[in-house]
Write a structure and sequence with these properties.
Elements: H1 21-24, E1 28-33, H2 49-54, E2 67-68, E3 73-74, E4 81-86, H3 93-109, E5 113-118, H4 124-129, E6 136-141, H5 161-166, E7 171-179, H6 187-196, E8 199-202, H7 203-209, H8 212-216, E9 223-229, H9 251-264, E10 266-273, H10 284-297
Parallel strand pairs: 1-4, 1-5, 5-10, 6-7, 6-9, 7-8, 9-10
Antiparallel strand pairs: 2-3
């Protein structure tokens, strides 16, 4: 299925065709994924997020020689970042998921890191599937646990991402960071997560001890796929989300998490989801998310 090329790439980086990935040898590749498995009775809320995130930092395309003071090196850390375009989508969720999985698998096969711009929180399920054949460790940043088995008969929706990840043979474990308030976390879901062995660090835990204990729960040298829900951030930083929950992660705490994961493991993929641009009227949340992606990319150079 042919990818769709929007008007602007992420931060003005070069476009790349799927069949040219190997020859270009990028370190990381942006993939837009507007929709996977929406619930039929709810708003499809994040289809415009990939476009908004691509254009949130328009000045980057002429400022790539600037030093990024967040990590002390050039923008993107000198990594070669390219943009594959958007995965097309339609009314059939299984087809949407397969297209996302195929795009991610193509980037992984080329030896690059997929940086997926979602889209709702059903997107991580097909992203994880794109790593089949190699062992990965999932780190989730989210206000919610997402362990529902199904909602209205849909088993691949945005409340079930970690439950579906736990069923994948190539997922070696799950660390969850930032849970607070309520959502996808009835007693049965919490019990299922703990029975699987998910390491859960609530925002109360992070407030008390920082992110170091969560980072230490990731095996050294693991290939980490970061499932990053925008509502994991505090709504004061990123108000443009579907379900705001007070007391989330701040920008500097996210930088500490990125640095900690990169030092302990290998960041093998990222899925940023649940950003809702029309609820972010000044666009500041989108800028914060795009900045965090830029800092993540700085940790993705080929070795």
């Amino acid at each position: 299925m042919a990818m769709i090329r929007p008007e602007a790439s992420f931060c003005g980086v070069p476009w790349v065709a799927q069949d040219a990935l190997a020859g270009e040898a990028p370190d990381a590749v942006v993939i837009g994924a507007p929709v996977a498995s929406p619930y039929p009775d709810r708003e499809v809320h994040s289809t415009d997020a990939p476009e908004a995130l691509r254009t949130a930092l328009r000045w980057y395309d002429v400022q790539t020689t600037q030093i990024d003071m967040d990590h002390g090196g050039p923008i993107f850390g000198g990594a070669k970042l390219m943009d594959l375009g958007d995965v097309p989508y339609g009314a059939v969720s299984a087809v949407n998921r397969a297209a996302i999985t195929d795009a991610v698998a193509a980037v992984v096969s080329a030896g690059a890191v997929p940086v997926v711009l979602g889209g709702d929180d059903s997107i991580p399920i097909p992203v994880f599937s794109g790593f089949a054949g190699q062992q990965i460790f999932v780190v989730q940043v989210d206000a919610h646990l997402d362990w529902r088995d199904e909602v209205s008969g849909e088993r691949y929706g945005f409340s079930s991402t970690m439950r579906r990840a736990s069923e994948m043979d190539h997922v070696a474990g799950i660390v969850q960071i930032g849970a607070r308030a309520a959502g996808s976390a009835r007693a049965g879901e919490v019990a299922a997560a703990r029975a699987y062995g998910a390491k859960i660090f609530t925002m109360r835990d992070v407030h008390s001890a920082g992110v170091r204990p969560a980072v230490a729960a990731v095996p050294e040298g693991a290939s980490v796929v970061l499932s990053f829900d925008a509502d994991g951030l505090d709504p004061g930083l990123c108000p443009g989300v579907l379900s705001p929950a007070f007391g989330g992660l701040g920008y500097q705490t996210m930088l500490d998490l990125i640095d900690g994961l990169a030092a302990r493991a290998r960041i093998a993929g990222v899925a940023l989801v649940e950003y809702v641009p029309h609820r972010d009227p000044q666009g500041l949340g989108g800028k914060a998310l795009a900045r965090l992606l830029a800092n993540l990319t700085a940790k993705m150079r080929r070795t």
